[in-house]
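Incident review: delayed structure delivery

Summary: a single-chain prediction request sat in the queue longer than the usual turnaround. Root cause was a stuck worker, restarted by the on-call engineer. No data loss occurred. The affected request and its eventual output are reproduced below so the record is complete for anyone auditing the incident later.

Affected input:
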Amino acid sequence: MENKVFKNVAISTTSNNVDGQFKQEVNTKTAYLTTDEQTAKELEAFGLQKYTSKDDNEDFFILKIANKLRLYYPDGHNELRQDLSNVEIDGTETLNFKTKDDSTISINIVKGENMGNVFYRLQAILVENATIIEPIEPENPFE
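Output delivered after worker restart:
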C-alpha cells in the first residue's frame, strides 16, 4: 500500500451510485475532485485518470471513498465520518456532500492492489473546520 497527500483539492460533488460490476463489502460514495494544474499532474503521476467535462471543458478526477473516511483538523485531532463515506448507514441513505465554493482541502489517497487490480481510495481529508464540508440536499422535483 502506498499513501500520498495532495493539496489544493475541491470536492465538487459525491455520488451514491454503485457499480454492480465491482463488489464492495460496504457500498461507499464516489468523489468528484477538481484542482489546480500542478496538483492535477501529481494526481495523474500517482495513477489517477483525468477526465474532462463536455459541458464546460473542466478537468476532474473520480475517486472512491474508503469505508472509514477520517476528517483531520490542523490541531491534529480527527474524527471518523462514515456518514460522508458510506452510501447507507443502518439502512438509511446518507446525503452527498461537497466542499464550500472557493474552498480547498488536502486529501490523503491510498493506492493498493487486490488480486492483481490496482485501486485508489480517498481515506482522509484535512479541513480547517467541519463547515467546509457542505451536505447536498436532494432537489425537490415538484418545485
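Verification: Residues 2-17+26-136 form one domain.
Action items: add queue-age alerting; document worker restart procedure.
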